Structures are given as structure tokens and as C-alpha cells.
Amino acid sequence: MSINDIRQAVLVGDGATAARLAREELDAGTPAADIMKDALISAMDEAGAKMATGELFIPEVLVAAEAMKAAMDVVSPLLVDQVGGGRGTVVLGTVEGDVHEIGKGLVRLMLDGAGFTVVDLGVDVPAGRFIDAAREHEADVVAMSSLMVTTMPKMKVVVDALHEAGVSAKPIVGGAPLTQAYADEIGAAGYAPDAGGAVRLVRDLL
Ligand code: B12
Q1: Inter-residue contact 24 to 1 (CB < 8 Å)
Q2: Gyration radius of the chain's alpha carbons
Q3: Least C-beta-crowded within 10 Å: which of 24, 78, 94, 122?
Q4: Ligand 1 in contact with 62 (CB < 6 A)?
């Protein structure tokens, strides 16, 4: 049993084994954050690399993503215990044209666990829905996720639309291709590279 076995189970899409091994690894004393980073996120990185070279196809990556979620269900309750408390409302979603949901799900989980109210709009969310939800829920923060260079520009559409609508919620951005420089360029209030960073960022902004 090792971190690498969990990674392999995720990669071959065996969620039951990934979840069982993750439980065993936790019981053996490995921190939840290490399992998340070194086994689960690392497996998705490898799946992405194999997807790019044509070694893995979409259905296989989808099955791997489902296996990751099964293992995440075991690991995540312990992850959220490792962060402190917070208050405020965050509207969260993956931007229009983008259906990647795992990273967004982790951000939701960590914000939830830290005590924030999270309104999760799901994936492929058009700008108008972010604005409407921010208004309706009197959100403090609008958090957007994007995993593709082709959908990142949709974040600027939301930032501009918030501004034009006079909605005061602060827009923050994240997702694998995002950078602080891009966040600055589009006028976002912040960027964080991971879900733990998202919690710290929201806390700092409130
Ligand atoms: C799983 C996956 C899929 C699955 C998604 C399943 C699902 N239910 O989510 C499926 C198979 C559906 C898929 C489809 C596609 N995908 Co895909 N996919 C991936 C893969 C392998 C993993 C993504 C993932 O879940 N990572 C794990 C999570 C935990 O990481 P994360 O999302 O980055 O999130 C973390 C941080 O970024 C941050 N974060 C995330 N969001 C936010 C938000 C805020 C506010 C903050 C502060 C932080 C934050 O916190 C998270 C936790 O630490 C990546 C490769 C990769 N390494 O990223 C490719 C990848 C993103 N996909 C890619 C592509 C091209 C596609 C497709 C276009 C393929 C195709 N030809 O059809 C389609 C697009 C579909 C669409 N319209 O969106 C490319 C994107 C290239 C680019 N940079 O533009 C990648 C990089 C693969 C590659 N190397 O080519 N994909």
C-alpha cells in the first residue's frame, strides 16, 4: 500500500480501490493533504499529460475523474478540519464553455469547511448567472474556476459585468492555467493556486 498505488487506482479508474487505499493510508497516519496532492491531484496531472499526447481518451479521463472523486470523499472530511473558520457568502462556478468541476468542487469543500456560505452554480456558467446569483445572495465574493486557456477570457467578461452592474462582490479566479498576472490583468480582486489558498484569499478579502 502506498501513495503510488492510490495514484494508479485513480488512473485506471478503479474508484473502489482508490477509496479503500486512501482510507488505509489515512489510518497509517499520512496527512490528508499529502494524499490529495501526491496521489489524487498528481493522478489528474498525469491523466492530463496522457490526454495531451493521445495516450488517454476522454472517456478514460472521465472514469479517472470519477475514481478521484470516490477517493476525495474519503480524504476531504479530514482536509477541511485542517483549516480555520470564516464568515461570508461566496458565489462559485466554472465559467461558460468549461465543464471541469473537480477543482471547483475542492474549493467549495474547503470554503464550506471553513464556515463560508457557498452558492455553487456548477459548471458552464454564463456571466449573467454569476451576476444574478451575486445580487440574489448578496455575495461578498464571486469565485470563478477555469481549466482551459480558451475559457479564461470568460472571467474578464464576468469581472466587467459585475462592475457594470454595480455589484460590489469581489471577483476571484483560479484553475490550473491561471496566474496572478492574469488575475491582475483582468482586474480580479485575487487569485490562489489551490483550494487552501482560496480559503486564505477569501478570508483576507473580507
Ligand atoms: C479531468 C479532466 C477532464 C474531464 C473533466 C471531468 C470533471 N467532471 O471535471 C473531462 C474528460 C470531461 C475533460 C474534458 C475536456 N478537457 Co480536460 N482535463 C482534465 C484533467 C486531466 C484534470 C483536471 C482536474 O480535475 N484536475 C484536478 C483539480 C483538483 O485541479 P484544478 O482543477 O486545477 O483545481 C485546483 C486549483 O487549480 C485550484 N482552483 C480551481 N478552481 C479554482 C477557483 C478559484 C476561485 C480558486 C481560488 C482556485 C481554484 O484549486 C484546485 C484544488 O487545489 C486536466 C489536466 C490537468 N492537469 O489539469 C485536463 C485539461 C484541463 N483538459 C483539457 C482539455 C483540452 C479538455 C477538452 C477540450 C478535451 C476535448 N478535446 O474535448 C474537454 C473540454 C470540455 C469542456 N468544455 O470543458 C486541457 C486544457 C488545455 C488548456 N490549458 O487549455 C487539459 C489541461 C489537458 C491537457 N493537458 O491537454 N477534461
Answers
A1: yes
A2: 17
A3: 122
A4: yes
Per-residue pLDDT tens over the stretch 98-152 = 999 999 998 998 888 788 999 999 999 999 999 999 999 999 999 999 999 999 9
What are the boundaries of each domain within the chain? 3-80, 89-205
Distance 148 CA to ligand 1 centre (A): 7
Q: What topology is assigned to 3-80 in CATH?
A: 1.10.1240
Q: Give the pTM.
A: 0.90
Mutate to test the pocket of ligand 1, among 147, 170, 200 (most ligand atoms within 8 A of CB): 147
| DSSP state for residue 11 in the 8-state scheme | H
CATH number of this structure's domain 89-205 = 3.40.50.280
The three three-digit cell numbers of residue 100, written as one number:
471541469
Q: Is 155 a pocket residue for ligand 1 (Cβ < 6 Å)? A: no
Report the Cα–Cα distance between both ends of the chain, in Å, rounded.
Answer: 42
